[in-house]
Amino acid sequence: MKNKYVDFISDEHFLDCVANLHKAYLKAKNNITKKNFYTNKVDTIKLTFDAKFNDINEESLIQAEILRQIDKSINNSIGTFHEQILGGINGFEVGNLSGFDIKAKDDSLFAIFKLSELSKNIEDCIFEKLTKDARIFKSAKFYLVDFTINSNYTEKCVTGNEKYKVSHKNVFKISGVSFYDLLTKTNYSLKLVNNSFYKILNEIKFEKQI
After folding, report:
1. Of 200, 149, 174, 3, which is closest to residue 89 (Cα–Cα)?
2. Which residues pair with 175 in a beta bridge?
3. Counted domains in the chain
4. Is 185 domain-assigned?
């Protein structure tokens, strides 16, 4: 019988991934409220100054900061969601304690996710890790998966400066869009995940399901 949501993982697994993300969001939302807002290392002097200097109602400023903190907290859960989705594809698994977010079960592919903008130093460190492991698993492909790129993109990962650049034949930078298509062997698979996710949110009253 044809799957209702996506073809590359079961409906049951997909629903579990969405439910886990929803739980994480509710937890983040409940953990950061106005009541405990000032216990989260908030600079109250800066907050007051920002409100006065920018002529913003302090209540609105607090609400915006709460939403920012929730967004920061949920970002890791978005990464976990992608791990669980892709880890449900036949032949792949969540990296767990391997130091990778996703890996092939036969050690032919390893990937680390980038979910937000990173400094060049951090990206260089990730490249060094990928390159080091590429010297061990010589026939494997290694990927830095950039979910901030919303289009098809795959290039050899290069680090350094204008005078000195370093790369490795098996280390690549790839967009989240292209990485989904690579693992699923289909086109527009991340778009399908997003559309199915929104469909579930519109169809199900999660508070009654979880």
Report:
1. 3
2. 146
3. 1
4. yes
3-class SS string, the chain = CCCCCCCCCCHHHHHHHHHHHHHHHHHHHHHCCCCCHHHCCCCHHHHHHHHHHCCCCHHHHHHHHHHHHHHHHHHHHHHHHHHHHHHCCCCEEECHHHCCCEEECCCCEEEEEECCCCCHHHHHHHHHHHHHHHCCCCCCEEEEEECCCCCCCEEEEEEECCCCEEEEEEEEEEEHHHHHHHHHCCCCHHHHHHHHHHHHHHHCCHHHHC
Q: How would residue 188 be classed by pLDDT, with cut points 50, 70 and 90?
A: very high
Work out the end-to-end distance of the chain between its first and last CA atoms, rounded to an integer number of angstroms: 26
- What is the value of pTM for the model shown? 0.81
Q: How far apart are CA 81 and CA 62, in angstroms?
A: 28
Query: Tell me: the pLDDT tens digits for 85-135?
Result: 999 999 999 998 889 999 999 999 999 999 988 888 999 999 999 999 999
pLDDT of residue 101: 97
Residue 2 lies in a domain: no
Residues spanned by the domain of 75: 11-209
Does residue 81 fall inside a structural domain? yes
**Is residue 102 a contact partner of residue 92, using CB atoms and an 8 Å limit?**
yes
